Amino acid sequence: MSKLPRGMSTGKKINPKSLARVIKMLFKAYPVLVPVTCACIIISSVVSAIPSLFLEKVISVIEKFGKNPGVDTWNTAKEQIIPLIILLASLYVMSIIFMTLYSQFLAVITQGFLSKLRTKMFAKMQTLPIKYFDQNKHGDIMSRYTNDIDTLRQLISQAIPSMLQAGTIVISVMCIMLTLSFWMTIVVLCGVVAMVLVSKKIGGGSAKYFIRQQKSVGKTEGYIQEMMNGQKVVKVFSHEPQTKAEFDKVNDELYNDGFKAHAYANCLGPIIMNIGNILYVLCAVAGGVLFVTETTNIGFRAIFTATFVPITVSVIVPFLSMTKQFTGNLNQLSQQINAIAMALAGAERIFELMDSEPEDDNGYVTLVNAREENGELVETSERTGIWAWKHPHNDGTLTLTRLTGDVVMTEVDFSYVEGKQVLNGVSVYAKPGQKVAFVGATGAGKTTITNLINRFYDIEDGKIRYDGININKIKKSDLRRSLGIVLQETNLFTGSVMDNIRYGRLDATDEECISAAKLAGADDFITRLPDGYDTMLSNNGANLSQGQRQLISIARAAVADPPVMILDEATSSIDTRTEAIVQRGMDKLMEGRTVFVIAHRLSTVMNSDVIMVLDKGRIIERGSHKELIAEKGTYYQLYTGAFELE
Amino acid sequence: MIKRLAKSVREYKPAVFFTMLFIFLEAVIECIIPYVTAGLIDKFNAGTATLSIILKTGGILVGLALSSLACGGIAGYTSAKASAGFSRNLRHDMFYNISDFSFSNIDKFSSSSLVTRMTTDVSNVQMSFMMIIRIALRAPLMLIFSIIMAFFMGGKLAISFAVVIPVLAFGLIMIAKKAMPAFRRVFKKYDKLNESVEENVRAMRVVKGFSRETYETEKFTKASEDIMGDFTKAERIVALNSPLMQICLYFNMVFVLAVGSYLIIGGKSSINVGEMSAMLTYGFQVLIQLMMISMIYVMITMSAESAKRISEVLDEKSNLISPENGIKEIKDGSIEFDNVNFKYSKHGKKFAISDINLKIESGMTVGVIGGTGSSKSTLVQLIPRLYDTTEGSVKVGGVDVREYDLDSLRGAVAMVLQKNLLFAGTINDNLRWGNENATEEEIKEACKLACADEFVETFPDKYETFVEQGGTNVSGGQKQRLCIARALLKKPKILILDDSTSAVDTKTDAVIRAGFANYIPETTKIIIAQRISSVQDADMIIVMENGKIMNVGKHDELLKTSEIYREVYEQQTNGGDRNE
Fold first, then answer.
1. Of A78 and A160, which is predicted with more confidence?
2. Does the structure show a pLDDT above 60 at A632?
3. Per-residue pLDDT band at B516 (split at 50, 70, 90)
4. Is there a contact between A432 and A594 (Cβ–Cβ < 8 Å)?
5. Confidence band (pLDDT; 50, 70, 90) for B84?
6. If you measure CA to CA, which chain A residue comes closest to B55?
7. Nearest C-alpha in B relative to A601
8. What residues have CB less than 8 Å from A239, skipping those under 6 apart?
């Protein structure tokens, strides 16, 4: 699994628009709280910056009176000093109040926003077409929920507030500087330019290696994963020394990138701070020179009051302390460079998912429960076991068509990638209650056909009709509800065995689930599990064998009780004896329903009503087992073992 | 635990030392700089700042800044080196240890957890290691230094610390104490949430197939909001940190100013203004350092969990080790199971296989038949000692497998696994797993025997064709044949095929078996199969069910004696001689 933010791997310039979008979303999610929090941050930083400006004044007052100490002096002095201290204290109290407020708000906003974003992303993901999941690595999709979301947490809870804080202070200090003296401000600005350049250079280097480090982490993780999966092979071939050596190589690479990334990042702080120290000296020297040469001072204050006098100590000294403050804040800002760069890349990947085209669904024919009244179908709300397609027509009339499972494909063409035709003029007729089997080599297009029936993919040309209705007119969720699918690759969910079976129909009772399991031949092993039907499954049912997992997924489809069933290599991992048991159950279950079977084992498909032999996207033979054997074609060759499947 | 991890620092000890040294020097300079700048400001205020004094002080300051820069830079470099190196060693040590794990060791952790331990946990520890070497020495030193200076320069005013420090310390400890369990809870829930996303992504076909999109979204939203609640709580506790800090800092300032001015102006004490300013500066320093220490404390507690998980892996001793001076010579391919019982976990109630007594002569072909879960694979895995028996013994060439040198034993027993695996690399690379020094002729010969040569030759790059990770670009049957060829290259005394021709057509399957009989007659061949046709010519067929051997015999005998065998046979043959 690669953890690498994609936007950065290609060296593509990161789009700052993502940042704007994140901020916009923040405001939208918390239209009141976000501005309030920003205001609190700004107020708190201004308020906390003020005292350092007149602290000097308090001290000089104390100093003035301190030259002549005594009780009497204190009595006169306290009238000046106590209000100052009260002012100072109240500013501090204000600052603390606002800080407490915004730090609490930030916690709420950050977590709330992330939760909203996560949920939104997840909901969006559910609407994406299967194609998206086939084209993107699962690890890659996953990392959007983990790494990318986490970069945003850093951005919102730390980077943005500290940018706002530092920005406020820098701007206000800048204003004060300009008020005091233009000349001195120019000196400070030179230093700032140097700092920005250095941050850009070193911060850029650090970001580059951080991204490389992410890549190496992904590579290392991939290697460990591969070796963990292949542990048995490694041991069987006593290949441990080679895998160790190979691991050391990957590990060294990670070390190199990690070392460089952190070396750059660690050096940035001291460099900025010491540029600040040197800037301090420059200010002192410049101030000294201006003072000695009695240069006329120009600043906004001088301009407004029209008093042009030589520069004084009262201008130079505040500049020195302001330089310190300035540097401290810029340093704080520079520490956020990595976080911001990573967050931008993360945001971009999140938006990529959120902006993906959802599966279109223009279907308007819906599936409803029906009941027969005087030979006519009538829609009802309760479950009757009879289903009907509710088909509204242009002229405003409604028709109810009974769901029977009659599937007709005519002259269907399809390709996953343009130019690489997977299906070519495929026609399939499945009458209600028929068992239709597909046989053919890997890549012949067997699974593709079923992917088209439930509209995981849409056909390019031709037609598919379900009970006489073009499937494009049927609402996707209803279409799929009417089709039960069991895939070779079983996927179980974390939860009890019972929960997993109930996934097929959420309102099924325990009894219904158990009888479905019995039908699927799964009841036997389930009851032997430590907690029977309440046994908890995790990690895709890791504690079960592949065959057992397949049995549960068959039970899951059985409880859904669909009129049409698609079995795609559903019994491939079940031994032939158990399969026979399952088969009996399935046959009972599928009485009167349409079944599509894809199987590798011919014994699974032999008793089908129609067997289609596919080759390179075309149906080359079709007929019953007997007919095909008599034909002595490809099926016959497969059957006699002269031909290899897969 | 810390001791265990510290062992992995090794060659990076000097880097750790230099980091601490230079960080310390940087800290010293950092303490001197304000002292010098304060002097300069005093001179400005007093009007005694001549250009030459400014230049001289400026020179000192620039010098200090440059040395601080040098120290900071060096420390930044060495600390990056030390921490990255430390994590490299940790991963190295873990991987090497894991490589020697037996499967029961691995099962104890689960392989996905081992991956997390080697990646996420190591990087957590790396980060806190860097923090610790950068701050752990410096912060307490600076703290002590600042407190001494504050008492020394601020005199009586330093009693404000008597109020502030206990309040701050108490507050920080309370915050850490409250936040830690909350965070731990959050991280656990977070892991669960991520697992459920993964599950959803992987099972998307099922989700869509059953139209469960809304259901899944609701489930996820609930879990996500649950985390949000906990996480917000935890972060709000931590967010109290900065206000607490500020309260203490500002209290100190206001206290010093108020009391200080009273004492100075009222002439109550010999304190002067300079001392008061120093008290303000150092008070600030003291609190900053306390904050740093609390931060380290939080970091350490946060990564303690990771450190624990790492040291668990490092401390785990493999329970399946090669004996010292183990026998290196395997006489022949005879196999004997003597009253073998085996269960995967010590705490398991049921034996996976039990009461196994079996004698296989060298050079025999043995078939094993049985349903899913009948423990066929378990039985054969005891032969190359992938697992040790729980009771009883397995002998190869007349000697207990536990007495052999492990590499020699596994070198003599080739096993083609049910779950075939090829690795990313060329076909040649993959085949050479069997024998690193195999010549091209040997490779070709093995492939011919496994019926793999015929299709490899049709590839454009032939034996140099690149195989994708997991072997996704060759078909199942081709993969199986390559895996057989790989095993043959070992020139084994015992060859075990664990359901490894299931995707190969029956004709080719027969050709491969005939080849075995003709070209490697001395090798003992054990063939586990689903189809009867794969085993019916064997010298001996073992029928297994529920971990026990039900019947042993030749095809014809078993048709008469074994009900299971007959049932399977009839099922596979009704309608004549046919493929699976």
1. A160
2. yes
3. confident
4. yes
5. very high
6. A285
7. B580
8. A233, B433
Facing residue for B99 by CB, picked from A243, A273, A292? A243
pLDDT per residue as tens digits for the range A515-542: 888 888 888 888 877 788 888 887 677 6
- pLDDT above 70 as % of chain A: 94
The pLDDT confidence band at residue B352, using thresholds 50, 70 and 90, is confident
A88, A254, A483: residue with CB nearest B254: A88
Is A85 in Cβ contact with B261 (below 8 Å)? yes
Cβ <8 Å between B266 and A640: no
Pick A6-354's CATH classification: 1.20.1560.10, 1.10.10.10, 3.30.1700.10, 2.40.37.10. 1.20.1560.10
Q: Mutate which of A235, A526, A550 to test chain B, going by most B C-beta atoms within 10 A? A: A235
CB A472 within 8 A of CB A461: no
Mean pLDDT over each residue of chain B, to the nearest integer: 81
For residue B295, the model assigns a pLDDT of 74
Looking at chain B from residue 262 to 321, which residues have their Cβ under 8 Å from any Cβ of chain A? Answer: 262, 264-267, 272-273, 276-277, 280
Among residues B378, B395, B396, the alpha carbon closest in space to that of B387 is found at B378
Question: Are B387 and B320 within 8 A, CB to CB?
Answer: yes
| B377/B375 Cα distance (integer angstroms) | 5
Whole-number pLDDT of residue A299: 82
- Highest mean predicted confidence (pLDDT) among A232-236, A311-315, A399-403, B517-521: A399-403
Across the A/B interface, how many CB contacts are shorter than 8 Å? 426
* Residue B434 clears pLDDT 70, i.e. is over it: yes
pLDDT at B70: 92
Judged by a CB distance cut-off of 8 A, whether residue B198 touches chain A is yes
Within 8 A of A358 by CB-CB distance, chain B residues are none
In b/e form, how buried is each residue of B249-265, taking b as 16+ CB within 10 angstroms?
bbbbbbbbbbbbbbbbb
DSSP A14: P
Nearest-CA neighbor of B335 among B237, B253, B415? B415
Residue ranges per structural domain of chain A: 6-354, 366-402, 407-640
CATH fold for the domain made of B142-318: ABC transporter transmembrane region fold (1.20.1560)
Interface test with A, best of B29, B55, B210 (most A CBs within 10 A): B210
**Domain B335-573: what homologous superfamily?**
P-loop containing nucleotide triphosphate hydrolases (3.40.50.300)
The CATH classification of domain A407-640, taken from the options 3.40.50.2300, 3.40.50.620, 3.40.50.300, 3.10.50.40 = 3.40.50.300
- What is the reported pLDDT for A256? 92
Q: Is B227 on the interface with A (CB under 8 A)?
A: yes
**Predicted local distance difference test score (pLDDT) of residue B512:** 83
- Give alpha helix (H) positions in B327-426: 376-381, 406-412
- Is the distance from CB of B154 to CB of B282 less than 8 angstroms? yes
Q: How far is A376 from chain B (nearest CA, A)?
A: 29
Give the C-alpha separation, A507 to A504, whole Å. Answer: 9
Matching fold, domains A6-354 and A407-640:
no
Give pLDDT tens digits for A79-98: 888 888 888 889 889 989 99
* Contact check, Cβ <8 Å, B505/A580: no
In chain B, where are the structural domains located?
1-136, 142-318, 335-573
The distance from CA B208 to its chain's CA centroid, rounded to whole angstroms, is 34
Beta-bridge mates of residue A399: A391
Q: Is the pLDDT of residue A140 over 80?
A: no
CA dihedral A499, A503, A507, A513 (to 10 degrees): -60
Residue B10, chain A, CB below 8 Å: the answer is no
Residue B301 CA to residue B324 CA, distance in Å, equals: 42
> Same fold for the domain at B1-136 and the one at B335-573?
no
Q: What is the pLDDT of residues B532-580, one digit of tens each?
A: 878 888 888 888 887 788 888 888 888 888 888 888 777 776 544 444 3
Task: Decide yes or no: CATH 1.20.1560.10 for domain B1-136.
Answer: yes
Minimum distance, in Å, between the CA of residue A390 and any CA atom of chain B:
18
